[in-house]
């Protein structure tokens, strides 16, 4: 069975290599060879690179040794340097192999963003310099994760993991045939193979399910990259830079039906996978007056602090007391700012206290087949109960069930759910390297 996308004609291919693929000189040379092979097979190639290995974390550590109040503008100047190192070294390695390469910073590649340092959004892409380089027969290499603010002309970064989004944005702007995301595992798995060795590679997944997986903490693809790909109809191919295996195709068809060449819709598995997330904390606002407008006031404060709220639970109000508790989760990194903002608004909103717990983990089960298959939640909660895992919060969508548990029980919970839905493979998944970031 062949995918309609595998047309032998000349293609424009965007290839994105993550930090673990370009972790050292040997990795860069290996990537260079792969890129050159792709061009020599008759394709136009644009490459997006992440910073080498854990460079971004190292730069963050370095700045923390100097100050804990780094100006956001300078932080972006610092962090954007990581990707620039990779792009220049890769261009050199490609030159050495006898092919032409031109590297570009995000700004030079026309990645125009808003001015929110550290999590800038792409508002326009003008890749004319990239296009010109391709027209001259060169391989264009673009530094991922960065852009330039339209207003201030300062350098911005797109948020951790943002190179995926750079790649998709370029693929959309250049009308590429495919955006290949190279990583250190063979594709998208039914769970993180580092936690569940029996996880299975998924061959094809709808962008809808991939969105839920990414939003639920699967680190294989940046959420914004999947949103962008879906919106602009860019097919994504997630695969390993350490093997030649076919990876996972994320298909952006708007009706989410994955079709094969004959136009026949494939039967979708009920469950596509399990995702987990340790990056969130739980905030409980205690003793909130149970009258209209209070939830709005709380979440306005949180929004102004630029925090992304995930799960929300409001408890039933204690009888006769007129007060309720509202709990929600948000990224740990956004916790401090959100708490400060909430405390400042305590008197005005009139709640009694705030509790904060970062020792939580979130597990999500995702599958488009949940819509039409009753009994999924029963199996899910039974599996957690059999594993002796207590649940702190629950939330659902049409195709997802998520629960919050104690952080130290999360791995066991993920394995229990993975087995309960018969997702376990007979053999162990290969993890080629890296940290899974
Ligand atoms: N280097 C950045 C990070 O580690 C961006 C990326 O890898 O996509 O978050
Ligand atoms: Mg990285």
TrEMBL record:
Pfam families: AA_kinase, ACT_9. The keyword Flavoprotein does not apply. Keywords: Amino-acid biosynthesis, ATP-binding, Diaminopimelate biosynthesis, Kinase, Lysine biosynthesis, Nucleotide-binding, Transferase. CDD domains: AAK_AKii-LysC-BS, ACT_AK-LysC-DapG-like_2, ACT_AKii-LysC-BS-like_1. It catalyses: L-aspartate + ATP = 4-phospho-L-aspartate + ADP. One of its GO terms (molecular function) is aspartate kinase activity. It comes from the Bacteria. PANTHER family: ASPARTATE KINASE, ASPARTOKINASE. Belongs to the aspartokinase family. This is Aspartokinase. It comes from Sinomonas cellulolyticus.
């Amino acid at each position: 069975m062949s995918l309609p996308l595998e047309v032998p004609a000349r293609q424009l291919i965007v290839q994105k290599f993550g930090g673990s693929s370009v972790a050292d000189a040997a990795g860069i040379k290996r990537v260079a060879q792969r890129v050159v092979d792709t061009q020599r097979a008759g394709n136009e190639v644009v490459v997006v690179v992440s910073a080498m290995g854990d460079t971004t974390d190292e730069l963050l550590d370095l700045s923390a040794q100097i100050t804990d109040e780094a100006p956001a503008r300078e932080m972006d100047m610092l962090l954007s340097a990581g990707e620039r190192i990779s792009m220049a070294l890769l261009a050199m390695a490609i030159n050495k192999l006898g092919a032409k390469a031109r590297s570009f910073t995000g700004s030079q590649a026309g990645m125009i963003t808003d001015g929110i340092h550290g999590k800038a959004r792409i508002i326009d892409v003008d890749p004319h310099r990239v296009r010109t380089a391709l027209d001259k027969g060169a391989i264009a290499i673009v530094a991922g994760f960065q852009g330039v603010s339209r207003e201030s002309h300062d350098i911005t970064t797109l948020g951790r993991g943002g190179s995926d989004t750079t790649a998709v944005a370029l693929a959309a702007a250049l009308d590429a045939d495919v955006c290949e995301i190279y990583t250190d595992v063979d594709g998208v798995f039914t769970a993180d193979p580092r936690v569940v060795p029996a996880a299975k590679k998924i061959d094809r997944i709808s962008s809808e399910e991939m969105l839920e997986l990414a939003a639920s903490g699967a680190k294989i693809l940046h959420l914004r990259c999947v949103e962008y790909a879906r919106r602009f109809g860019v097919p994504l191919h997630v695969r390993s830079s350490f093997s030649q295996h076919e990876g996972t195709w994320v298909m952006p068809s708007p009706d989410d039906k994955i079709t094969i060449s004959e136009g026949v819709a494939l039967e979708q598995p009920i469950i596509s996978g399990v995702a987990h997330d340790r990056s969130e904390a739980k905030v409980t606002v205690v003793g909130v007056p149970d009258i209209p407008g209070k939830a709005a006031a709380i979440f306005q404060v949180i929004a102004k602090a630029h925090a992304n709220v995930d799960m929300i639970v409001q408890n039933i109000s204690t009888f006769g007391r007129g007060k309720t508790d509202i709990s929600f989760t948000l990224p740990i990194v956004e916790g401090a700012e959100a708490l400060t903002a909430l405390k400042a608004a305590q008197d005005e909103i009139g709640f009694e206290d705030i509790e904060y717990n970062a020792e939580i983990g979130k597990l999500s089960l995702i599958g488009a087949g949940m819509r039409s298959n009753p009994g999924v939640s029963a199996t899910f909660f039974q599996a957690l109960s059999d594993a002796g895992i207590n649940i702190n919060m629950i939330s659902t969508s049409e195709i997802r069930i998520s629960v919050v548990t104690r952080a130290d029980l999360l791995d066991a919970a993920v394995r229990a759910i993975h087995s309960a839905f018969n997702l376990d493979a007979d053999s162990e998944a290969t993890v080629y390297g890296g940290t899974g970031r």
